[in-house]
Design brief:
The protein is mainly α. Helix content is 78%, strand content 0%.
Length: 288
Amino acid sequence: MSRALPVLTVLAGIIAIWYAAAVWMNATWVFDQAERAGTTVTWAEAIPQTMNQDRPLLPPPHQVGAELWKGFFGQAVTSKRSLVYHAFITFKGTMMGFGLGIITGVLLAMAIVRFRVMDMSVMPWAIISQTIPIVALAPMIITLSSQLGLTDRDVPKAIIAAYLSFFPVLVSMVKGLRSPDQMQLDLLKTYGASETATFLKLRLPASMPYFFASLKVAVAASLVGTIVGELPTGAIEGLGARMLIGSQFGEPLIMWAALFAAAILAGLLILAVGFVERLARKRMGVPA
């Protein structure tokens, strides 16, 4: 309870601010309607009307919660209106990009640590690549994919997700693989260990805490990349597509529900990475 109390306090504060902002923003419509009707409305009368508008500027928390409940439990999971269905589409693209990002980041990190020329040539470009706005890069990737005959929409989404997720893995793995001190490296040389043995028995185990820490960042970045990749593809499936549909058709509840569904999915993915980390630490004999 002592650990949960600060979190609950912050959550209560956020909800209170959210309700206050919803009243302030949605009251504009209430007073405008009253002015058109030639009547006056007090704040006491306006506040209840700001809580259940069909198309509010800022939906209050209970409306978003109701839309989430309807999206998760009020529809069949195979329905195109189900948030479970759309979350699965986004999850599939996220995992494809996440896996590609891990492979790319780890391989580049190994090459950078092993070869100085890779460190001097590849690492600066990897850093520069992260300065390019993903919203500008995504349409280019989609256009190139279509020119190459890749009609599957999952491919450009996976590339965009991998583009965002490989960098945290790369930086953390380079740091982790270089974390053993010189005394440890000299000891293995004294034992006549080869570079492969040094990598497998010293560098790789030492990099695991850095690796799993980067995965928690990378999986969230991969989810963001997948959602961004769904926007310019003209996709009609996925949480990004639901956000776009809600924006285009003036349905803020759909947009907010998809946004919170994405946040829930991100939280579950990070918890899954933490679970795998605990299993790996237990397997390696390292205390959690």
